[in-house]
Amino acid sequence: MINNLSVRPSLVPKEQRGSVESQVCYLTSRIKRLTEHLDLHKRDYSSQRGLWKIVGKRKRLLIYLFKRDRLRYDNLIGQLDIRGLR
Q1: Which of 19, 35, 61, 80 has the fewest CB atoms below 10 angstroms from its CB?
Q2: Which strand (E) or helix (H) includes residue 58?
Q3: What band does 2 get if pLDDT is binned at 50, 70 and 90?
Q4: What is the pLDDT of residues 47-80, one digit of tens each?
Q5: What is the CATH number of domain 18-80?
């Protein structure tokens, strides 16, 4: 379903742009970019706070998906290669 982390909104079908999977994929790519930025700029506390906000939003979306459809959740976790909920 999701082949690439750098999903551009124009490439995703219109009916799937707001889906939980596409939102989590987009947030994951932002998290990876911010993590790379923070490796270089360790004292950039504003970006660090933004990173924590994005991580929290992705976590809430994953909890929602976990409760609603466990199969879609497991597929998404496997495709994005991220750690699941504890």
Answers
A1: 35
A2: helix 45-68
A3: low
A4: 999 999 999 999 999 999 999 999 999 999 999 9
A5: 1.10.287.10
